[in-house]
């Protein structure tokens, strides 16, 4: 243990660099977590839909959407947020549903800066089904 103290004294630049890198990594992680949309459970999603009139936006492809989607959900592509087609939903919480959560997280980070209130359904449509919540088939 006495050698560690001597090493730190002799190589203080290395230790300073190590501490700075550790600090920058920590700050970067905090910023990333802050930008990340809140991942919610199906039960929280139901609560948002029922009590706060949240809008469910399904980002999956059209075929997957017609095979089963959440009641009253809107099928949309991420490009529609860039084209201002979704601006009417800026004042409501939005629940993004995708096959992969990373796709929804990426879009959520992007649209948060545009004034939306995005949430991501953790586990996607599979989590909704596993919670024994209903799906609508067809359009």
From TrEMBL:
Molecular function via GO: transferase activity
Domain Rhodanese per the UniProt entry, residue ranges: 50-137
UniProt cross-references to InterPro entries, sorted A to Z: GlpE_sulfurtransferase (IPR050229), Rhodanese-like_dom (IPR001763), Rhodanese-like_dom_sf (IPR036873)
Transmembrane annotation, as ranges: 12-31
Signal sequence coordinates: none
Keyword line: Membrane, Transferase, Transmembrane, Transmembrane helix
Source taxon at top rank: Bacteria
Protein's name according to its UniProt entry: Thiosulfate sulfurtransferase
Organism: Fluoribacter dumoffii
